[in-house]
Amino acid sequence: MEGHTYQATGNTPVGVRRLYRESALPQVRAKRVAAYCRVSTELEQQQSSLTTQMEAFNDMIARHADWELAGIYTDEETGTSRRNRDGFNSLMADAEAGKIDIILVKSVQRFARNTVDTLTATRRLKALGVSVFFERDNINTSQATSELYLTLMAAVAQEESHSLSENMKWGIRKRFAAGIPKWAATYGYRKTEEGDWVIEENEAKQVRRIFDMYKNGSGLPSIVTALEQDGVITQMGGTKWYPHTLATMLKNEKYIGDVRMQKDYTADHLSHRRVKNRDLLVPQYYIRDHHPSIIDRETFAVVQRIALLCDPHRGSTQYPYYGFLRCPHCGQLMIRFQLPGHFSKEKDWTCGGAAGHEKRGDRTSCIPQSISEGYIHEAFWQTFDDLDEDGLLAISHSSGDMAEGARFALEARGCDRSGLVGKRNEPSYHLLVKTVKGISFTEDYRTLLVTWNFGVVSRIDIGYQRPWHRPTSVLTYSGGRFRIDCKPIVSGKQVATSLKVRILYIDAIRIVDPSDDDEVQIPNVYPPLSKKHNSNEEDPCELPG
């Protein structure tokens, strides 16, 4: 008889004491009673547990004549967060609306595994006049001592959840370390009953199309438009495509037959928030040639470099000339930038200086000159069109890399150029990789020099539309007028201001080299006033307004 409370009735005959067990359930009349049931997975045994809970609560409510069923609310999600628990949220909403007087729950663990959420919810319900009875734990929130016991039980449930989460993580990481990846639905692949990953050819055809279009210079929005116009079905069965979906596909190593495990991880067991594993806080595992590939490795590598060249989060985009353009004065790689405000809508290229420093302090040792990208586009296409076709044909009949480059140039000249030209008339990066060894200028920037990878060097004069567009133009002021190369110009004050701003801007650009661990060596180029760089040095001077 230990652990129970017994009382004597007050109307029994003298000398007779009748004992009965005091029910832990609240003695109420005509109360609207709801039940909450939850399981954390969709496994068959858990479904059976959910059914058992519902039947038990139905019977309990039916045995009380003064109770009426207000509903049974169920969830099949994890209990550490309310975010994905539709049944629980509906239960709270109905309680707020005054539709419930009592809530029955199997245990505190079924209600929530987060101490804060448990206490917050039960206190809110108590303020609404709604009591919660936890059957297994024999806790009724209408009783004065319930919160102490509830706090203890909720803390135990939260710690059990944390222990279970850590055990599951340990098991998953052990499988990863053993080379057993987790299957995730991937467009272009299917998983057989034997566990093999096989190619779904209809989808794989579209994957190859996406990679080829991006490699040849098409942007993500234009690829989306092409797919939707052709009615290509997505992985979810619809016809609506999104740029971020394509961006994820283009970076997915599964398309070359590899698997990288733990690209992200769960930050904690309470929020279940997934975070990118950029800093390798948990170990990553990489399996090469795990399954058949859809994309060849060369194409995948080119696409990754293009994605980095076009990535605005790296400070500025360096597509398509980074790695090809060389400074005519010092021979270092040139970088791309854009002047702020109304000074210029064009992208310019200037000397990036010598690499090897967190911030390239010796970059400004070179002459602060720049050339508009539009002139580079125009001159490059002129040199490409002026290539001697007979010479290319002769080289293509030989062997080696030179012959391959010549064959690609011949093929490119003979096909529709729309697949090789971007919306700003820039050549595709794929064309440059296949045909160009380097691009530079004479020191006066009057002539563009293209060294082709099939052993030919082309020279073309650059046709500047304005005298001050040429990087080496000399600005002077004499006789009350501004002059460019000793020739008077109109709007001289505006030109002088523009050239001054350009020089100051070039001097102040921040260039942060990538780490040795980066697969693709492309620097981060930050505007002078950007706060995104990682340098602890003093901020550069501000530009004049």
From TrEMBL:
Entries under SMART domains matching the protein: Resolvase
CDD domains: Ser_Recombinase
Location of the Recombinase domain: 186-315
GO terms assigned for molecular function: DNA binding; DNA strand exchange activity
SUPFAM superfamilies: Resolvase-like
Domain of life, per lineage: Bacteria
Gene3D superfamilies in UniProt: Putative Large Serine Recombinase, Chain B, Domain 2, Resolvase, N-terminal catalytic domain
Source organism of this protein record: Sphaerochaeta globosa (strain ATCC BAA-1886 / DSM 22777 / Buddy)
Region (Disordered): 524-545
Resolvase/invertase-type recombinase catalytic domain ranges (all copies): 32-179
Protein name: Resolvase domain
